[in-house]
Amino acid sequence: MVKDSFSEVFSGKKKVMFVYAHPDDAEMYSGGTIARLKKEGFEVRHVKMTMGDKGSRQENYTEAELAKIRETEDEAGLEVLGLTPKDSVNLDLGDGGVANDLATIGKLVREIRSFRPDIIVTHNPEKVVVKDDNGEFYINHRDHRHTAINVVDAVYPYSRDNLFFPEQIKDGLTPHIVTEFLFVDSWGDPDLVQIDVTEFYDRKIKAIGSHKSQYGEEKAQGAADYFAPEKEGRRYEQFRWVKAD
Predict the structure, then answer these.
(1) Looking at domain 6-243, does it have CATH number 3.40.109.10?
(2) Which of 18, 51, 150, 162 sits in a 20 to 30 Å window from 143, CA-based?
(3) Cα→Cα distances 226→30, 56, 60, Å
(4) How far is CA 180 from the centre of its chain?
């Protein structure tokens, strides 16, 4: 029997931060969970590292045109999940240009110290090549890997210790400690938890489909099926749950 771990994971928490590399990552990996959190009254902050301005195989877009298109699509997709523009931050680092460096870490530290999340959801920081439950492989995008590593670095030790990025302290922010993560792209991990998103599955499909420059209707359905597979008649999104001190 599949266990819904929503209550266990989020018990005692109020604020959940999602940090992803590109527009549509939030909807694809965790759209159902975001919608469920919002319905249950949690505060949710969505941080995008890039605007996905190179994420197209169409030759008739410039980067500026695609960035504008994806910004509009992003707002529409997040609205389906219950998020408003004030719930979402774009660091605008440039598609394909996310680096693991102090400048990037500092931007995330500022977001963490500002929002003060109880748990952070992000990409898999460890795997370059991911193997899914069907035994098939896919590449963990460089922006995804660097985003996740930056998040982990930002949490420990940079957002915790007040001598890191002291200009933020002068701005009125204070250190903040986060000890829990949910990592996506973690198929088959022994620390995997399942979040029941059956009630929000249609919203997940609609949110993914809002990114029309990336997904047609059939592809949006396929992405939702893949990242919220059916198990025992229910739909679940899955994450590796890590508690680190």
Answers:
(1) no
(2) 162
(3) 12, 21, 30
(4) 14
What pLDDT digit, counting tens, does each position of 177-223 carry?
A: 999 999 999 999 999 999 999 999 999 999 999 888 887 889 999 99
Query: With bands split at pLDDT 50, 70 and 90, how would you rate the model's confidence at 57?
Result: low
Integer angstrom CA distances of residue 244 from 17, 116, 169, 186 = 16, 17, 24, 17
| pLDDT digits 0-9 by tens, 229-243 | 999 999 999 999 999
Token pair of 5, please?
A: 């771990």
pTM given for the model: 0.95
d(CA 245, CA 242): 10
Q: Counting Cβ atoms within 10 Å, is residue 244 exposed (0-12), middle (13-18) or buried (19+)? A: exposed
Mean pLDDT computed over 29-43: 98
Burial of residue 154 (number of CB atoms within 10 Å: 0-12, 13-18, 19+) = buried
